[in-house]
Design a protein that fits this description.
alpha+beta; Transferase(Phosphotransferase), domain 1; five-stranded antiparallel β-sheet; 12 strands; globular
């Protein structure tokens, strides 16, 4: 039987106490580990990691919102945390403990003004998926099967206080004082607040699905504004499986390549044509079909890419531009990798490291077809770890990199990882957009 929640902590005190409780459990786990280590010197940290991951996830999953969103983001980074954590945190993508039936009904009524049983011909109080911001229920209206996404109560109001609790940890990880991290936290806070605005999500869902409707093998649900609100979003029910379940059925490589091609074309069209991307590419937001088609859901997190940033960031993926030193100097200064006050030694070291990473990331775009493998992903993470050892990166004097790169990079790391999970070989078609970047910089 699935555990449900009749109440979600919403006050600062309640949420802080929940996190403090997790901290106390972690302390107890360490005491148990050291006690066992004393008895058996060969005792490993695996059990410790598993216990800590379970206790942290239990607390975060009860808090929901930005606290659980952090776990969701970490679960996509296979090198940042031990496997016990990434495996457990991956549950936050679509399997968090759900609200109880009575709380679901109360939450729906408060937002819509009517009971879901009144609005729909049939409404299932048991959810089909529960994630960080809301959970999904199946309903029926006039013969149509619908998905009803209901936001957890109090989530929007808790984001700022949650991030304040997370800041000290992040500041310690990146070695920067709080004021230096402010621009990145501001970007995260803005995106999380947007995710709690279902009216905005409805508008973006309709706009993006219409713009991308001609992309082969990608499909979207129809949305229903008349049943939706700022905390409730109603759309067609889409059939399909999440990536893990899809792969467990051993689809042919041909089908996996077709799925990967659809995702690749979808993301590149959004970015290079629309200058906006579905910036939450975890497997819970895609529904895979046996024939290789992909349903895309959840446009809560969309990164609108400023045109100025686009024309100064993505040219570095084009070898012709990356080999032009005067242009590279302009680009790296504009996107805040280098600063005028940097010494020539720091500039040379950072430029070399950044261009090596960019060259690696641009590899899929430098051939007509590219085969994504786990070895390729490992190579990216290894290069990232190598760069992190550079003193000015490990303990920077100021934050480097535009805030706009935060969600763009996260999106592409997520896409690359899914491509590798599919072991996909696809047409990368960089010529569809690289030409306009070359033309842009030709006379500059």
């Amino acid at each position: 039987m699935i555990d449900t929640q009749d109440k979600i902590p919403t006050s600062k005190v309640e949420r802080a106490m929940k996190l403090m409780g997790a901290g106390a459990k972690i302390g107890g786990n360490y005491l148990k580990y050291y006690a066992k280590k004393t008895i058996n010197s060969e005792h490993t940290k695996e059990e410790l990691h598993e216990n800590n991951a379970a206790d942290i996830y239990q607390s975060l999953s009860q808090l929901k919102g930005s606290a659980l969103k952090v776990a969701q983001m970490l679960s996509m980074d296979k090198n940042l945390l031990p496997r016990a954590y990434t495996d457990k945190f991956a549950l936050s993508q679509y399997s968090a403990p759900p609200m109880s039936g009575p709380l679901v009904v109360r939450t729906f009524e408060k937002s819509v003004g009517k009971s879901p049983m009144t609005v729909f011909d049939r409404f299932e109080t048991n959810c089909t998926a529960a994630a960080s911001i809301g959970q999904v229920h199946k309903a029926e209206k006039d013969g149509k099967i619908l998905a009803v996404k209901i936001q957890y109560p109090g989530i929007g109001n808790s984001i700022q206080s949650d991030l304040k609790m997370v800041k000290p940890v992040a500041n310690a990880m990146f070695g920067l004082p709080e004021k230096e991290m402010q621009k990145y936290f501001q970007e995260v806070e803005e995106k999380l607040l947007e995710e709690t605005n279902y009216t905005l999500e409805l508008e973006r869902s309709q706009e993006i699905s219409l713009a991308c409707s001609a992309i082969p093998d990608i499909f979207f649900p129809k949305y229903y504004p008349e049943f939706s609100s700022s905390k409730v979003l109603v759309m067609d029910w889409l059939e399909g499986e999440h990536l893990k379940e899809f792969l467990q059925k051993n689809p042919t490589q041909e089908v996996k390549n077709r799925v990967a091609q659809a995702l690749w074309d979808f993301y590149n069209f959004q970015l290079h044509t629309q200058l906006a991307i579905h910036a939450d590419p975890h497997p819970g937001n895609f529904l895979f079909q046996p024939d290789g088609r992909v349903g895309v859901i959840d446009f809560g997190c969309v990164k609108v890419v400023p045109e100025d940033f686009y024309y100064h960031y993505f040219p570095l993926l084009v070898p012709e531009i990356r080999n032009n030193q005067p242009v590279v100097d302009q680009l790296l200064n504009h996107i805040e990798i280098l600063f005028p006050a940097d010494s020539s030694e720091v500039k040379a070291e950072l430029q070399k490291a950044f261009l090596e990473m960019t060259s690696l990331l641009s590899r899929p775009f430098e051939s007509e077809r590219f085969h994504f493998t786990n070895e390729f992903i490992d190579e990216i993470y290894a290069k990232g770890e190598e760069i992190y050892q550079i003193p000015e990166v490990k303990k920077p004097t100021q934050p480097r990199g535009s805030k706009h790169a935060l969600y763009v990079n996260r999106t592409y790391f997520g896409i690359y990882s899914m491509m590798a999970d599919l072991n996909a070989e696809i047409d990368t078609k960089s010529d569809l957009w690289s030409g306009k970047l070359v033309d842009y910089w030709k006379d500059r």
